[in-house]
Specification:
This protein is mostly helical. It has one domain: AhpD-like (Up-down Bundle). It is built from 9 helices and no strands. Helix 3 packs across helix 9.
């Protein structure tokens, strides 16, 4: 099985890094299950798959990873979100600014940032779902970067 992390890192079944990842199959399976749950949950809580993919694309671009960005299919309705636009209608503008801030400078996040999401109309479950998406995509970027570095050694 080749998952999204393998694909982004350029790994196939013949690559030693692919075999290395399989030494901990629970991590490979867990990462793929996490990806599915943050992008296509059984209950999207009003954060559609289109929006989730656009935000994931945006985060990958912010991390300067075009390969990962290409994994997230952007629907036309969300092309401005995906491309990094900052003049979006609410609540998209607040969501996008939050995604950008946590991706670029996570240590600056404060309770006030959560209050802004609430003021924009997001519920607690939506904020948790958004946080899970942000965490997964940034995790994916870092794991893929590490795998690429191992291949360069």
């Amino acid at each position: 099985m080749t998952d999204a992390i393998d694909q982004a890192a350029g790994l196939d079944g013949t690559d030693p890094r692919h075999a290395l990842r399989r030494r901990r199959p629970e991590f490979v399976e867990g990462a793929e299950a996490c990806r599915a749950s943050v992008l296509h949950p059984a209950d999207d809580l009003g954060l559609s798959a289109g929006l989730r993919n656009a935000l994931a694309h945006r985060m990958a671009l912010l991390n300067k990873d075009d390969t990962i960005a290409a994994q997230y299919v952007v629907m036309e309705d969300f092309s401005a979100v995906a491309s990094g636009a900052t003049d979006l209608p609410e609540p998209l503008n607040t969501i996008a600014r939050h995604v950008d801030m946590v991706t670029a400078d996570p240590t600056s996040a404060t309770a006030e940032h959560i209050r802004r999401l609430e003021a924009a109309g997001l519920s607690a479950p939506q904020i948790v779902a958004l946080s899970e998406l942000i965490a997964y995509v940034n995790f994916q970027v870092r794991v893929v970067a590490g795998l690429r570095l191992l291949g360069a050694a």
